[in-house]
Amino acid sequence: MSDSEQNRPESGSRFSRLSRTASFWILLALVPLLFFQIFSSGGNAGVEFTYTEFREQLASGNIREVTIVDGRSVEGELRTPVNRDGEDLSRFVCMLPGEVNDGLLEELQARNVIIGARPASTPVMERVFAFLPWILMAAIWIWFVRSLQSGGNRAFQFGRSKAKLISPDTPKVTFEDVAGADEAKEELQEVIEFLKDPQRFVRLGGRLPKGVLLVGPPGTGKTLLARAVAGEAARPFFQMSGSDFVEMFVGVGASRVRDLFEQGKSHAPCIIFVDEIDAVGRHRGAGLGGGHDEREQTLNALLVEMDGFESNDGVILLAATNRPDVLDPALLRPGRFDRQVVVDSPDIKGREGILGVHARKLPLAEDVDLSVIARGTPGLSGADLANVCNEAALVAAREGADRVAMVHFEKAKDKVMLGAERKSLVLTESERELTAWHEAGHAVLGLRIPGLDPVHKVTIVPRGRALGLTASLPE
Question: Count of alpha carbons within 13 Å of 274, Cβ hemisphere only?
Answer without folding.
Answer: 27
